[in-house]
Amino acid sequence: MFAVVRTGGKQYRVAAGDKIVVEKIDGEAGASVTLGDVLLAGEGSELKPTDGLTVAAEIIAQAKGDKVIVFKKRRRHNYRRRNGHRQQHTILRITAIGAQQEEKKSRAKKAATAETGAEAPAAQA
């Protein structure tokens, strides 16, 4: 199964087990993150609805990109400026594609109703 997610202003096509480099996301190496902005999902040539769909990922490392040299010059004005920039990146490993958070919430609700002894309204009918 694959999904197209949006993070950091860019879109990425991901599948379980993929490694991607995205704009900086807060978190330490080994932490889990959830990418909730899923634009498209499917398997093979079939597309699936993306309502409530999330992508779970694990942070592998926080890194910096290659240095980009910014050089400004104005001819005949003795004006030269040299500057460098290294963009902050996060390397992610996609662990799963699916609505796991909602499943966990629904399981928690079922467990809470089972503990209180209250029956669901649909079960009474």
Automatic annotation (TrEMBL):
Function of the protein: This protein binds to 23S rRNA in the presence of protein L20.
One Pfam family named in its UniProt record: Ribosomal_L21p
Keywords: Ribonucleoprotein, Ribosomal protein, RNA-binding, rRNA-binding
PANTHER family: 50S RIBOSOMAL PROTEIN L21, LARGE RIBOSOMAL SUBUNIT PROTEIN BL21M
GO cellular component terms given for this protein: cytoplasm; ribonucleoprotein complex; ribosome
One Gene Ontology term from the biological process aspect of the record: translation
Region feature (Disordered): 97-125
Similarity field: Belongs to the bacterial ribosomal protein bL21 family.
GO MF annotations in UniProt: rRNA binding; structural constituent of ribosome
Start-end of Low complexity biased regions: 111-125
Organism annotation: Sphingomonas jinjuensis
InterPro entries cross-referenced by the UniProt entry: bL21-like, bL21-like_sf, Ribosomal_bL21
Keyword field contains Ribosomal protein: yes
Protein name: Large ribosomal subunit protein bL21
Subunit-level organization: Part of the 50S ribosomal subunit. Contacts protein L20.
